[in-house]
Amino acid sequence: MRLPTYFISHGGGPWPYMDDLRARMHILEASLVDIPRQLPQEPKALLMISAHWEETDFRVMSNPQPPMVYDYGGFPAHTYKVSYPAPGSPVLAERVMALLTAAGLPTQADANRGFDHGTFAPLAVMYPEAQMPVVQVSLKTGLDPEQHLALGRALAPLRDEGVLIIGSGLSYHNLRYFGPQAKEPSSQFDHWLQQTLLESTPEDRVEHLINWAKAPAARIAHPREDHLLPLMVAVGAAQNEAGACVYHEENMFGGVVASSFRFGAIK
User: Fold this and answer.
1) Cα 186 → chain centroid
2) What is the pLDDT of residues 178-211, one digit of tens each?
3) Which residues have CB under 8 Å from 253's CB, separation 6+?
4) DSSP at 60
5) Interhelix angle for 229-236 vs 202-210, to 10°?
6) Could you tell me which of 133, 225, 97, 113 has the C-alpha nearest to residue 172?
7) What is the reported pLDDT for 267?
C-alpha cells in the first residue's frame, strides 16, 4: 500500500528534551504524534530529508548504527548527551542510491553521518521507542528547487515499498526575525504556501515552488532556503497527488505562523 509523504516543521533545536520548550510546542507535538496514526500501515523504514545536512551531491546515510549530531548551540548541557538510538539501514541506503543513480542524480554513501536535530527531534515525538530504521538523505548545495523536486521524483517508488518519506524543515525560518515582528511576513508566506500546496493543480504547484522566491515575504520567511527545500522533496515524491495541512499554528516562537503538510492519500 502506498504511503503518503510529509513536510514537517520540526521546531526549535532539541525541544523534545526540554520540558519548558516542549510545553510551548504542544500544538506541534500533537501534530507529530498524530502522523503515525494517519498512515495506512506501519512503515518498514523512515527516509528523512533534513534541512540540517547539505553536501555537494546527494549523500545517503549508510551507517547501521548512526551516531548523533548536536548541530545547535546555547542549549542545556544534557541536550548534548541525548540519544535517539534508531537503527540505520544499509539495505535502504543502497536502494536509495540505486534510484538516484538511475535518475541521473550524483550520489554516494556516507558511513559517518549521524542524526541531526532535524531528524531526531521530531522522531523522538513521532516514534519515541526508536524502533523504526531511519536513513537520511542530504540536501544538495546550491539548494536548487528543481533538483530537489527531481530528488523526490526519484525516491517516489519507495512509497510502494513501505518507506515513509519525510522532509524536515520549517515553513518559516528567519532566526533574526522571530517573535511579534514575524507575525505578518510569516502569515503572508504561509497563506501563499496553503494556496500553492492545497489549491493549485499539480503542474501549477510545481511551477510555483520552483519560483517560490516570488511569493509574498519569501525572502523574509527564508533568507536562506535550506529549511524550505525538504518541502520540494516531499512534493516531488507525490507530485500528482493532493496536499493537506496537518499542522498549523499562529504563534510559534512568539509570533510565527507555521505549518506542516501531507501529500498523497492515506487510505
Assistant:
1) 18
2) 888 889 999 999 999 999 999 999 999 999 999 9
3) 12, 178, 179, 182
4) E
5) 160
6) 225
7) 63
What is the spatial distance between Cα 18 and Cα 137, in angstroms, rounded to a whole number? 27
pLDDT digits (tens, 9 = 90+) for 44-58: 999 999 999 999 999
CA dist 103 and 155 (Å) reads: 9
pLDDT value for 253: 85
- pTM to 2 decimal places: 0.97
Q: Which parts of 74-209 are beta strand (E)? A: 107-110, 134-140, 163-169
CA angle 144, 147, 152 (to 5 degrees): 125
Phi, psi of 47 (to 5 degrees): -115, 115
Q: Are 238 and 263 in contact (CB under 8 A)?
A: yes
pLDDT (average), residues 167-182 = 90
**How far is Cα 53 from Cα 39, in angstroms, rounded to an integer?**
26
β 256-263/5-9 pair status = antiparallel
In this structure, what DSSP letter does residue 15 have? G
What local confidence, expressed as pLDDT, does residue 27 receive? 96
Say how far apart CA 197 and CA 208 lie, in whole Å: 9
Q: What is the pLDDT of residue 175?
A: 77
User: Are 243 and 198 in contact, with CB atoms under 8 Å apart?
Assistant: yes
Q: What are phi and psi of 138, to 5 degrees?
A: -80, 160
Q: How far apart are CA 71 and CA 266, in angstroms?
A: 33
SS3 content of the chain, % helix, strand, coil (to 5): 45, 20, 35
Question: What mean pLDDT value characterizes the chain?
Answer: 96
Q: What percent of the chain has pLDDT over 90?
A: 93
Task: Round to whole Å and give the CA distance between 147 and 2.
Answer: 24
